[in-house]
Amino acid sequence: MQNVFIAGVDHAIGQALAHACLDREYTVYAIGAQEDKVLLSRPNYYFTPVDMHVPEIVHSDVESFIQRHTFERVILASETMGNICDMSDIPLHEFQDTLNVNVLSLKQTLDALLRHATAQQVILLGADTQKLEHRGWGSYIATKVMMSTLIPFYAEEYPDTHFSTIVPGLTATPELSHIFKTANTRRFPSVMRIRNGLIKSPEQTAEELLIGFDRVQGFRSGEEHQLEKLLK
């Protein structure tokens, strides 16, 4: 039976991954801002609340939860998209919050796992820069890319663990739905293009990711991959 750790189980993809892993009778350890009563009712599911907006407390919260455990798979799915606006219009505190969730708290989570537990595989869910590297998405893309650039360094430092970044493709989430409803599509036309494009359900993305997690281990540790290519 595999032990899986998921950071960001309150995120749509993280939640779907937790259910998919439990369906396969894996044991799931998860962190997120809020508990999910359906997941909590399932066997082999363990959860502790962690506020990813406050990176200073993340390391200690994660350490006490996972100490001395062995995880076949660690999935870093926690993220926030922030507001869609020009970089020059983003207040510093909003950019800092996006940085906290997408980089600093994930780094704190990963550091705690590597120091106080054993991880055989670590996967960061990356951002689709080809579709989102447009006006309005700056804080999200900048912070997601920043975190993904750390993965090759971890791969060198921990050669016994396989690291990768996998870009799952656009997936329906409440946060993305909110952006579609509230963003100024005249000022940020990419929002309209994305809304009219192919967007997968979290459940589909989770099932595809589980296939990708197995296949990516055949590649060099530290690399970034598009999930679509891993499935071919």
Any key phrases for this structure?
232 residues; alpha/beta; Rossmann fold; seven-stranded parallel beta sheet; two-stranded parallel sheet; 10 helices; 9 strands
Short description:
Helix content is 48%, strand content 17%.
**Range of strand content:** 15-25%
Uncertain residue ranges: none
Secondary-structure element pattern, one letter each: EHEHEHEEHEEHHEHHHEH
Rg (C-alpha, Å): 17 Å
Give the structural class.
alpha/beta
Described by strand count, sense and barrel closure, the largest sheet is: 7 strands, parallel
The CATH architecture category equals 3-Layer(aba) Sandwich
Number of helices in the DSSP assignment: 10
Number of domains: 1
Strand order of the largest sheet: 3-2-1-5-7-8-9
CATH topology term: Rossmann fold
Per CATH, the class reads Alpha Beta
Task: Characterise the protein shown here.
The chain has 232 residues and is α/β, with parallel strands linked by helices. The protein has a single domain (3-169, 202-230), classed as Rossmann fold (3-Layer(aba) Sandwich), CATH 3.40.50.720. The protein is 48% helix and 17% strand. It contains ten helices and nine strands. The chain has helices at 12-23, 37-40, 55-66, 92-116, 129-132, 138-157, 174-182, 190-195, 202-216, 227-230; strands spanning 3-7, 27-32, 45-49, 70-71, 73-76, 118-119, 121-125, 162-167, 223-226. Strands 3-2-1-5-7-8-9 form a seven-stranded parallel sheet, with helices on both faces. Strand 1 (3-7), helix 1 and strand 2 form a beta-alpha-beta unit. Helix 1 (12-23) packs across helix 9. The two termini are 27 Å apart. The relative contact order is 0.15. The model has no long low-confidence stretch (mean pLDDT 95).
